[in-house]
């Protein structure tokens, strides 16, 4: 193993750790902190060798959050592991949209994955090819998780091997107090959808965003032209664990704002303030 300082700071500090790893020509891990940020970045690059025998590639995160409740971000919802699952549902591995939060009543950690959407809990459980008895039926997940980055367990419609240099990025944010749905969503989206830097003219005024929201926890998931090109379609999503009220603030004058359906048909005028229920999606 070889550890070097890649960025000495004071704004960005990065440690580079190069080592051997099973099935790889080498593994390079970077641990990065940025002044003013409240999280740690992990960047793992594998130089993967071709392997056609059954294998799985994991990065382990043995986090220490006693009595942690595990919540997984999925499209348009958050799943509390085991509690929110039906009988017979898969508990051996999970799909993650952006983040997992592991929290008890006093503190916790939000873990964000940018490139690898599959997750397992310790101990690793693979049913194939060992039989149905290896599927979990119920369990209490701990705070030791694995990012399942690659495997060749399913031959149908999948390449039989992965090889070459592949990078997997993660961000870990510890937090005081218990789980906060709005903060977890904000952190996950900030990491996975970073701001884009564009050239600015100091002689010109700052360009205002087209639309701002007043309402903690409600986010804009898309703004796009309507199919007929005559309007803008806006989709709002309440990421909070309870009802939230939102108000729209347009930077330019607009016509009437309508509550719409997914077919882009206006149904009712948008009120001055709109209350969204937990995880409610509204189309304007």
From TrEMBL:
**Any one Gene Ontology biological process term?**
oligosaccharide catabolic process
* Residue stretches making up the Glycosyl hydrolases family 38 C-terminal domain: 218-284
Which InterPro entries does the record match to this protein? Gal_mutarotase_sf_dom (IPR011013), GH38_C (IPR041147)
- GO molecular-function term, one example from the UniProt record: alpha-mannosidase activity
Protein name from the UniProt record: Glycosyl hydrolases family 38 C-terminal domain-containing protein
